[in-house]
Amino acid sequence: MLDIYMESDKEAISFCESLFQINKKIELHWKTNEEWGNHLRIQVEEVDDASLDSIARALVDVFMFHRLSDMIRSVIKDVYYYTNNDEIDKILDLTHWIITGGDDENIDTTGTEDPGLFLESLFITMIRNACTVYYDSLVKFRIKPFKELIKCFTGLAIDEVKREEDHQSFVHALREYIVKKKAVVPAVYMLQGDPFIFFDANGKRFSNMELNMIMKQEPLYIVGLDSNEKNLSPLIAMAPENIKIFGDNPVEPKTLTVINVFQERVEFQPMHNFPFPKYLKKL
Q1: Does residue 191 contact residue 197 with C-beta atoms inside 8 Å?
Q2: Would you state the pLDDT for residue 50?
Q3: Mean of pLDDT over the chain
Q4: Which pLDDT score, from 0 to 100, does residue 91 have?
Q5: Using an 8 Å Cβ cutoff, are 94 and 161 in contact?
Q6: Closest by Cα among 62, 42, 63, 56 to 131
Q7: Residue 13: exposed, middle, or buried by beta-carbon count in 10 A (0-12, 13-18, 19+)?
Q8: Every domain of the chain and the residues it spans
Q9: Which helix (H) or strand (E) holds 158?
Q10: Which of 58-62, 102-106, 235-239, 266-270 shows the lowest mean pLDDT across its residues?
């Protein structure tokens, strides 16, 4: 038998719902206590590993749904000293996304523990030999290691937000630069790849030598580029009026950067629409 006390009615309801979904064999009785709020008595002959895991996972679900946002928000304000609500909300959303397994190659979570599993292990340790559990006391005083982990994930989110802000500033500077620049060529056709492959409107491929000559005539350092960069630098140097990109992935990062910089000048089409099919046979 295990007694769990929760002050919040909403958290008590969430715990019961989660526990029954995880383990339908556990018998639970719910009544109210004047001093401690909701009294949840879990009726099992023995709190074995299976029931212990079920209870801990349900407690994790309650915390993640009802308390995680407040913890992240306090970390953003009290540890990283953010005060702007829009910035706080942006970091909060991104931290949630990272914690729940969001996939982004720019965010390296190598070496960090899974927050849900880490919190579950903490709860298991706390309730393994207990007869009575005061949930509010647990989350207030005994999950500091989990908060340290949340600080780490919040820091990763802040780093990514800063990278995105720097990237947006970079894109804005490039936009302003090409608006003032005269086009060297009227149109460029591009194939996705690493790096891009460039063609003129007649289907002639730009050689590396031709691209290098064009780039050397342009002070690319002004906008933070150089001739060693083979994807965006050639386009900035040529500043074409029209760009057609052909490929199979319109959200590929390099492609998105070109679209964000050149905006209405860019058109993306599937690879099978490439107008110079003879070249594709050579790939």
Answers
A1: yes
A2: 85
A3: 91
A4: 96
A5: yes
A6: 42
A7: middle
A8: 2-172, 181-280
A9: helix 144-180
A10: 102-106
